[in-house]
Amino acid sequence: MPDDDDDLAPLFAVARAARPVPSAELTARVLADARALQPVPAAARRPLAGLRQALAEMFASLGGAGAVAGLGTAAVAGVLIGYASPAASDWISNALAPAGSSIELLSTEGPFLTEG
Amino acid sequence: MAFDAITDTSDDDLLAAYAGGDRLAARLLADRLLPRTLGYATRLLGGDRAEAEDVAQEAMLRLWRIAPDWRRGEARVTTWLYRVVTNLCTDRLRSGRRRAAPMGDDLPDAPDDSPGAEARMVQAARLAALDAALAALPDRQREAVVLRHIEGLSNPEIAAVMGIGVEAVESLTARGKRALTVALQGRREGLGYEES
Q: Which of B19, B150, B188 sits opposite A39 (nearest CB)?
């Protein structure tokens, strides 16, 4: 083995061990780019596609749009939820409770939780 | 995702998951790829950390952009990234944008009497000397030597990164190492090497 390799090998080993660590700021910038460029999944990109499909199937099973027109609003919503495909189910929760919002199921205000 | 599953997941699979909308995939890919991207760019740019960060961010941005069109089996993600970094650094070097980083910035200013301090100083001096010698190499020799002996790529992988044949890689690596040896020869004593 030539002497030059004997001298360089330990230096290369030091260099390999001294790889710079990305700063938190650089990592944050890289991940921000990733979020900005990340493709939106197809189901989320076309939320109405699931709705249209569900409506078409529902109308067909209930005897056409004329029959559906005679139903009340709550009945239509109930049938619609039942017909919605699993892949498009997110649009329901997203429509009811958009991302970032919260739903208080049990009010902590008022007299309901106080003894008395 | 279990830790074993994460470590066993290939770069291709993570990239596909990212393209499919997986939020965690980008973080995992960045953790894997950003250190080597930054390290390679830093060495190609003679230690200019600010420029190297710009290059690393740009290279990762191009990876995010190409993710939906990435074709498995044609190239490794790391090979592709190294090629992008090489080209970005070459452009900056040729345009004269690289600012020469003063060597020795990482050495301590005040005397350090803690145990192992002398060993750490010798190590830092050796690294600074190597970086200075690498920075003085012709661009292509520096790329080949860094990819081979610091990044640990095989000669065929380096050939794919640099767009040349394997024999050309071997020639560049050999010439680069000879030049490094000559550059470092006069500094043996200062770098803590015993005279044989």
A: B19
Percent of chain B with pLDDT over 90: 66
Q: By CA distance, what is A45's nearest residue in B?
A: B21
Q: Which residues of B touch A37 (CB under 8 A)?
A: 61, 64-65, 67
Task: Determine the pLDDT at residue B196.
Answer: 47
Distance of CA B20 to the CA centre of its chain: 29
Tens digit of each residue's pLDDT (9 = 90 or more) over B71-103: 988 889 999 999 999 999 999 998 876 544 544
Q: How far apart are CA B44 and CA B140, in angstroms?
A: 10
DSSP A116: -
Position B94, amino acid:
R
Which sign, positive or negative, has the C-alpha torsion A35, A38, A43, A49?
positive
DSSP class of residue A88? G
Best CA proximity match to B143, nearest among B151, A81, B13: B151
The rounded distance, in Å, linking the Cα atoms of B75 and B36 is: 17
User: Does residue A33 contact residue B64 with C-beta atoms inside 8 Å?
Assistant: yes
Q: A72 is written with which tokens? A: 């009340």
CB-count burial class (<10 Å; 0-12, 13-18, 19+) for B196: exposed
Token pair 């009945």 is found at A75
* Terminal Cα distance for chain A, rounded: 91
Summarised one tens digit per residue, pLDDT across range A55-102 is: 666 666 666 656 656 666 556 556 555 544 444 434 333 434 445 555
CA distance A9 to chain B (A): 8
